[in-house]
Give the backbone structure.
Amino acid sequence: MIEVENLTRYYGTRRAINNISFQIEKGEVVGFLGPNGAGKSTTMNIISCILPASSGSAKINGFDTFEQSLEIRKIIGYLPETPPVYPDMTVAGFLKFSAGIRGVNSKKIPSAVERVIEKCSIKDVSHRIIGRLSKGYQQRVGLAQAMVHDPEILILDEPTVGLDPIQIIEIRKLIQELAAEHTIILSSHILPEITQICKRVIIINEGEIAAVDSLGGLTASLRKSERLSLTVRNSEDNLEEGLKNLVQVLSVSRGEENQFLIECELRSNLQDEIAKLALEKNWGIVELKPVPMTLEDIFLKLTLEEKEPAA
Amino acid sequence: MRNIWLIAKRDMGSFFNSPIFYVVTTIFLIIYSYIFINILSFFSMQSMQSGQFQQMGMALNINEMVIEPSFQNMAVILLLMIPIITMRSFSEEKKSKTFRLLLSSPVQLKEIVLGKFFACMIVVGLMILLSSYSIIFLFFIGEPDIGPVLTGYLGVLLMAGCYVSVGVFASSLTENQIVAAVITFGFSLFMWVIGWGAQSANSSTGQVLEYLSIIEHMDRFLKGMVGTSDITYYLSFIIFGLFLCHRTLDSNRWR
C-alpha cells in the first residue's frame, strides 16, 4: 500500500534522511522509532505530501506523493507534531472546517464531525475555543481532525508528546481502537508506546534505517545473550564470584541492593544451576527470572553497533 | 471553488473573532469621517458664498469637490490599514503550524492563495461599504452624479485589491506579521510615489513611471471613466502579486 524507495531529503546542505526504503501493507500498524532529529518527521512529511523528496519516491496505492498528491491527500489523515489547530476557532467549528477542506461531502459533514467528536471523547469541549483547551485536549482535537474524513491511512507524528500519563494512556487506547480499521504509521521516541501499539517497527537513526522488523524478530535477531535477574535475601561478598564461576555465565552485574543481573550464553538454561548454588550456599532466593529485551536495549544496541565500525 | 470559499470563510471568521478587524475598521471610519466632514463643510461654506457672487456657482460641483477628494483620502487611509488586515494571512498559519493542515488536505496551492486573497478583499470591501454612509448621505442633501460614484468605488476596490495582493504575498515571505506589514506598507507606498519621478525623468521614462504609479490610474475612475488600460494595470498587478505568493509558498517546500 505504501512503498517508499530510496528516499533522500536535504534541507539546504544538511541531509535529513538518506536512502530510506520500506513497504507498508494495508491494515498494518507500523512504528517509526528514533531519537529526536533522526528524520522521522521528515519522512512523514514526505509521505503526507507536504514536502517533496530530494530524490527517491514514495507511492501510496500506486500514486506518487509528488506527482499525484491530490489523490493521496484524500486518503490520508495527518497529525503533525504540533496539532494544526486554529486557536481562535471552536472545536466543532474547526472540525467542520477540516472536514470540508479534506473533501467530505457537505451533507455528510455534520455526521462526520459528530462521529470523531464521539470517538475522541471531546464532546464536553466541542463548543469551546481551542486556544483555551489544555494540551491534551488540543492533541485530541488534532487527532479528530486527522480522521474526520475517515482516511485509509493515518499518519501520526508523536501523538503522545507533552501529555500527562493519563492522557497518554487514553490516546494510546484510542490509537489501538483505530488500528482495527486503518493503516497507521506512528512515530515516537518513547519506546513502550511502540511496543504496545505497533506490530512492526522501523528504526531510524541519523536519517538512515537501522532496522525494519517485527518486534519479536528484532529481539531474536539482536540477541546474542540472555539475561537473568536474581534477587536474594542474604547477599554474601563472594556471591558474584560464585556466579561468575558457572560455565556459561558471561558477566554479572549488581542491580538494586540484593539484585544481580546475570548475562549468559543463549539457550544456556542456567536457572537450575543457579538455584542449586543458591541452596548450597544458603543465599535465600527471592526471585529468579529471565529479563526480556526491551526496545531500549534494541535501540541502543542498534545505534551503538552502527557507530562502532565507523569509529 | 468550494475550497476557495471554505478557506476564505474560515479566514473571515478569524477576522471577526479577533479585535483586529474591529479596531482597524473603527479607526478607518473615524479618520475617514473626520476628513469627509471637513470636506463637506468647506463645500457648504463655498456654496453659501456662491449665493452672494452669482458667477461662482458655476464652478461648484459636489462630485468634484466632495466625492472625488473623499475617495482620494480613502485611498490613503486604506494604504495605512490594509497591511494590518493582510499581515496575518500566511504568517500566522506558518507560525502556529496550521499551514500543514492545508498542505496535507486535497486542496491546490492556488486555491489556498485565492481563498486568503478573497477573505481580505471581503473584509476590506466591508470597511468600504461601512464608509459609504457618507456618499449615500450626499444623495439626500444634493444631487450628485451616480456614474462617477460607482466607477470611483470600482477604482477604490481595484486599488485595494493591489494592496491586498502585495500584502498576501508579503505575508507568505515571513513568519513575522510585523515584517509582513512593513513590507506591504513600504511596497504599496513606493508604488504610490513612483509616479512622482515622472516630472524629472525624460519623457519616455516618465511615461513608464507614470503608468506604474498605482494612484495615476485612480484619477480616471474618479472622473467616471473606466479605461481598459487602468483595469488592465490593476488586474495584472493583483494577479502578479498572487502569482509571486504562489511561487513563494511552493518554493518554501523545497528548502
Observations:
- Chain B has one domain: 2-252.
- The radius of gyration of chain B is 20 Å.
- Residues 14 and 21 of chain B are 9 Å apart (CA to CA).
- Chain B touches chain A at residues 2-3, 6-7, 10, 13-14, 17-18, 96-108, 253-255 (CB under 8 Å).
